[in-house]
Amino acid sequence: MTALKTVAIVGGGISGLATAFSILERSQQAGIPVVCTVLERSSSWGGKIVTHRVGELVTEAGPDSFLSQKPAGLQLIDKLGLTDQIIDTNKTTTKACVYSQGRLRELPEGLVVITPGQVGPFLRSGLLSPAGLLRMGMDMILPAGRSKEDESLASFFRRRFGRQAFERMMEPLMAGIYAGDAEQLSIKATFPRFPDLERTHGSVIRGMLATRAEATVSRANGRTRTMFVSLKNGLEDLVAALRRSLTDRGVMLRSGTSVESLRVRSHELGRWTYDVMLSGGSALSVDGLVLATPAFVSADLLRPLTPLAGGLLEQIPYASTVTVAMAYPASAVGPGVQGFGFVVPRVEQRDLIAATWTSLKWPHRAPSDQVLVRCYLGGVGRESVLELDDASLVTRVRAELQRICGLAAEPTYVEVNRWTKAMPQYVLGHLERLDEIERALSRFGGLVLTGSAYRGVGIPDCIRAGAIAADRVVRHLAGERVREM
């Protein structure tokens, strides 16, 4: 009979909870009995997934949706029995806008994939001048880059599409996902698909045209979903369902428990016992250990074991952001409020990064007589705005909304959510840095890192990373020598 094994997961965000869920699945499949404990420093679970329900309003303090094209999110929701709670974005003719040169301009659907039928919308949008549109189309004839070196987002998109297309469209859409600076972000670590298309097809546009046909066939074989999806009553229902499932299956969830340090012991080559030293002086000894904490927290814990890994983890920078949600009487909202929202290019030098008309984008977010908006501020190079108090932040946001879309009414509800050092930055050399971290940890079998700091910041990315971490831990518990990140 296989001996009972023990695993501790440090961090109770979506990464840690999803890892615990996958460990239960994989250990059962492998026939290995496992006792799993999840340790969370705060009193709440889910990390940045935080839903507020105030009357009929449903607001998200952190992420408000996830990509349906990445299957890990939908698969986990199905396993948890929440599929009937999935909601798609509302149908609307205008989906997104860009604030450019003094006014909101509709972002043409397709964006990068310019076919003859799509040239008209690009020209009418006024986002690009005829010269800028011509330069963007030159991607079709420019030779593919030959260098295998890492390249920044800014460098790649300027090289393929020109300065104007980069500044007015690519930068606010893509760099905004990371709240980062496109001059610093690694294209290989953030959007590897684009250099892959360039390398394979000689052109990003040609590559997207070729793969679009494949994607259409794939969508026809399954249930059609909009690109982004959410849950009817908010994403915190995903966290609640995970907690229920884990607790029902014997996982110990310990909130309000800080991990002070780690110690290791070995009685045979390559086999370790990890002593997790907890606040209050107690300890937890386990056969497998997963750190699902921010990179800078993992750095502090690992530095005594391996200074090299600790130093490398500390080099992963983080950005701070803030979201401001406000509700308005629908009767006070003018024609400038339409579609799902808008993004603001960095070159516009505005405080606002983006805004989502939450109740126009999603059903079940506000009563019909109210309009709910969520505004985004902060990020790399713009973090000074977080020094303002809440009242000053709201004043600043309201002034921005009035200038950009003419919304001057008094909000009936306001909430401010600050996220300090919450968004990891995949800067140049990120993937090489991960390889170095993995080599530095190679002697510690059963010790695994997971979370948004490494290979994807979205909810499906974190769920998938948790499954990979779980697989590595269970394989180690089964006696295999495993070492890949």
TrEMBL record:
Its cofactor is FAD. One of its GO terms (cellular component) is cytoplasm. Transmembrane segments: none annotated. This is Coproporphyrinogen III oxidase. Gene3D superfamilies: FAD/NAD(P)-binding domain, protoporphyrinogen ix oxidase, domain 3, Protoporphyrinogen oxidase, mitochondrial, domain 2. It is found in: Cytoplasm. Keywords: Cytoplasm, FAD, Flavoprotein, Heme biosynthesis, Oxidoreductase. Pathway: Porphyrin-containing compound metabolism; protoheme biosynthesis. Belongs to the protoporphyrinogen/coproporphyrinogen oxidase family. Coproporphyrinogen III oxidase subfamily. NCBIfam families: proto_IX_ox.
